[in-house]
Amino acid sequence: MEEITCLGIEGTAEKLGIGIVTSSGRILANVVRQQALKAQAGIHPREAAQHHAEHVPQVIRAALKKAGISLEDIDLIAFSRGPGLGPCLRVAAVSARTLSLSLGKPLVGVNHCIGHIEIGRLLTEAEDPLTLYVSGGNSQVIAYDSGRYRVFGETLDIAVGNCIDQFARRANLGNPGGPIVEKLARKGKYFPLPYVVKGMDLSYSGILTAAVEALNKHPVEDVCRSLQETVFAMLVEVTERALAQTEKDEVMLVGGVGVNRRLQDMISLMAEEHGAGFYVPPRDVLGDNGAMIAWLGVLMYRSGVTHELMDTTVIQRYRTDEVEVKWRS
Ligand code: AMP
Ligand code: MG
After folding, report:
1. Are the CB atoms for 30 and 289 separated by under 8 Å?
2. pTM assigned to the model
3. 128-280: which CATH architecture?
4. Of 96, 243, 255, 278, which has the fewest CB atoms closer than 10 Å, so is most exposed?
5. Distance (Å) from CA 288 to ligand 2 centroid
């Protein structure tokens, strides 16, 4: 098969990513521009969308320059169709449609969560992993089974990254909170916080409230430590049960929260106890990025999927298991 080059646009939340990837899996460029967040505020969907709209031409130019190619060398356009924040998704979709129309190249809308899994499979040795996907907007335990990526467990309310970020803001630690809480947690002592696993699902909003209240009684380092231990232990429990249930022999950790060393250690220890391999993709593709969107675009296109313009509406609550996975057998 002739090699093709795909440009992928990621824009589900506060990061705008442009990735350029070939069908042989070479990442030619992966440029991510993050909207500067205010210290006290979460992501404002319309302001994030405004950021993406303003910067998309510049980030595309930067990616093309990095790849050493021009727009005419692009054979396929992919974009994140969901899940995500409506206004942000629409900017990515409109940019992708415009490029597709003006270049006369095919267009594929992809599921963001599956993008994380596929770039992980491309860049690690994992072939058929049970995946723990943890980020600012998502927390899911996912495995491939009979033609779909099935969700074995997920959060019932906020994502684990959002829980940590909200805590950090309320504790005046800064934004995003993940790396700051990780650092402080190393110096802290553990005390119990509410632990909420319901069946295979997780709930983080009550723990967030309890952790914020605990700031009145405990040093901030101790609360950081206890919050991390608690929310990560919940992830380990659900991932471990899914591993037993699916009988996979690989565990992969993806998403921005996957950068956390403590979480990596906990999941890797659990995997080892089950005789399963443990995989984490390189840091620059762990969080949201355009290369994962471009690569999934390639896989879908090669399996016969393209989208007509009218089929490129965004899907804010795009479920991982809605996608028919034609590129794996
Ligand atoms: P993503 O949505 O995949 O781009 O990831 C963003 C999320 O990752 C935010 O909630 C960050 O706080 C979180 N994050 C980044 N670095 C770390 C870290 N070292 N520990 C925990 N969470 C982190
Ligand atoms: Mg993500």
Report:
1. yes
2. 0.97
3. 2-Layer Sandwich (3.30)
4. 278
5. 5
For residue 114, report the distance from its CA to the centre of ligand 1, in Å: 18
pLDDT digits (tens, 9 = 90+) for 261-311: 999 999 999 999 999 999 999 999 999 999 999 999 999 999 999 999 999
Q: How far apart are CA 33 and CA 305, in angstroms?
A: 28
Provide the residue ranges of all domains of the chain, joining segments of one domain with +: 5-117+285-322, 128-280
Asked whether this chain's domains 5-117+285-322 and 128-280 adopt the same fold, the reply is: yes
**In the numeric block, which tokens belong to residue 159?**
């994502």
Cα(116) to centroid of ligand 2, in Å? 7
User: pLDDT > 90: what percent of the chain?
Assistant: 97
The DSSP 8-state label assigned to residue 7 in this structure reads E
Ligand 1 binding pocket, CB closer than 6 Å = 15, 135-137, 161, 164-165, 176-179, 182, 255-257, 259-260, 287-288
How many beta carbons lie within 10 A of that of residue 189, not counting itself? 11
What tens digit of pLDDT does each residue of 221-244 get? Answer: 999 999 999 999 999 999 999 999
Q: Give mean pLDDT, residues 7-19.
A: 97
3-state secondary structure of 138: coil
Show the tokens assigned to 191: 């005390």
So what's the architecture of 5-117+285-322 in CATH? 2-Layer Sandwich (3.30)
Question: How many whole angstroms from 94 Cα to the centroid of ligand 2?
Answer: 20
Q: CB of 90 within 8 A of CB of 130?
A: no
The residue contributing the CA closest to ligand 1 atom 17 is 178
Q: Which band of pLDDT confidence, cut at 50, 70 and 90, is reported for residue 329? A: confident
Q: Which helix (H) or strand (E) holds 62?
A: helix 45-67
Ligand 1 pocket: which of 43, 163, 164 to mutate (most atoms <8 Å of CB)?
164
User: What residues pair up with 201 in beta bridges, in sequence order?
Assistant: 198
CB 149 within 8 A of CB 320: yes
Joined together, the tokens standing for residue 21 give 């990837």
Q: Which two structure tokens, joined as six digits, stand for 246? A: 């699916």
